[in-house]
């Protein structure tokens, strides 16, 4: 089987002396690109959601470190500290951010003395993070699609596609592969309040690939399930803990509970770089709280009366007990997830690793 074709847009493009990012705040009405000439603009782009999605955040931050190295004076170990700290402070939940920064930091060991060669080595590491993610997307797509039956209808949440990764996605890669295999008859994309990643982004990229996609508001999912119109729910994740609990876009937990009630399989799809073996369970995952304005307004239009408080947690945690399988680039993990995760990450004796 072949890997997916590259999408006809560049979510993250390294230009040698800067980073170009498609501006995801403007889609689907405008396809414009933001140029980041330094690590500070890269950090701002992550914070403000020009770029988002766990793997894409990690890749972007890695290139941010390269930009910092290009501009650095003095020993890199010292000069890069503000960039490492500033990039790490952008978004707390997606573990890929910290995973990619750790990987860039480890590359600082044993760099050549020559500054140009040292920067080139960091650039090569960032490119590898990007390229490896692309390959992992293809593998996840194939592993996930193999689980689906002919004629399936899949519901997904948020955006997990080419806009969220270095390739054609995590859960969206499964949807794309199932469509190419002739198995998928329809994808349902939850609108995904409040930032609308489903209706603005997932619908945009799947529709331009010719994948049949229907947008529903988040509160329609249960009724579709009750009518027998959903065969599987497939979503990405920002951080899966050592026991299989997973943080993903707010609303994911409710979908998993609905799946349990209706006997529908619920799958997480993500690369092993989104798994955090150092976090024992979901309760320890830090959930980002985003600005009120994302809830109180759509564009310039106020939806909530002045003075009324709102909540805006960007993610929720789905307990492992509600998850039928976790699909990574290595294959499909089934419960109990502790030993399965330890095995996939190569962490010691799996029989003693269940936490
Ligand atoms: O707040 P976002 O848009 O960065 O949230 C993204 C998600 O929740 C995705 O489902 C997740 O990153 C995993 S798939 C790439």
CATH superfamily of the largest domain: Translation initiation factor eif-2b, domain 2
> Spatial order of the strands in the main sheet?
6-5-4-7-10-15-16
CATH class of the largest domain: Alpha Beta
Q: What Rg, in angstroms, do the CA atoms define?
A: 20 Å
Averaging pLDDT over every residue, what do you get?
95
Approximate shape: globular
CATH architecture of the largest domain: 3-Layer(aba) Sandwich
Number of domains: 2
Bound molecules: 5-S-methyl-1-O-phosphono-5-thio-D-ribulose
Number of separate helices = 12
Q: State the separation between the terminal residues, measured CA to CA.
A: 36 Å
Low-confidence stretches are: none
> Main β-sheet: number of strands, strand sense, barrel status?
7 strands, mixed
What structural class do you assign from the helix and strand content? Answer: alpha/beta
Order of helices and strands: EEEHHHHHHEHEHEHEEEHEEHEEEEEH
Strand content: 15-25%
Descriptive notes:
The chain has 355 residues and is an alpha/beta fold. The protein folds into 2 domains: 12-136, translation initiation factor eif-2b, domain 1 (Four Helix Bundle (Hemerythrin (Met), subunit A), Up-down Bundle), CATH 1.20.120; 142-352, Translation initiation factor eif-2b, domain 2 (Rossmann fold). The chain has 12 helices and 16 strands. The protein has helices spanning 39-47, 54-71, 76-79, 81-88, 95-107, 115-145, 171-180, 197-208, 221-226, 252-262, 293-296, 337-344; strands at residues 12-14, 19-22, 33-36, 152-156, 184-190, 213-216, 232-235, 239-241, 246-249, 266-269, 275-276, 297-298, 301-302, 315-318, 325-328, 331-333. The longest helix is centred in the middle third of the chain and has 31 residues, at 115-145. The mean pLDDT is 95. 5-S-methyl-1-O-phosphono-5-thio-D-ribulose is lined by residues 52-55, 94, 158, 160, 164-165, 170, 197, 235-238, 248-249, 270, 314.
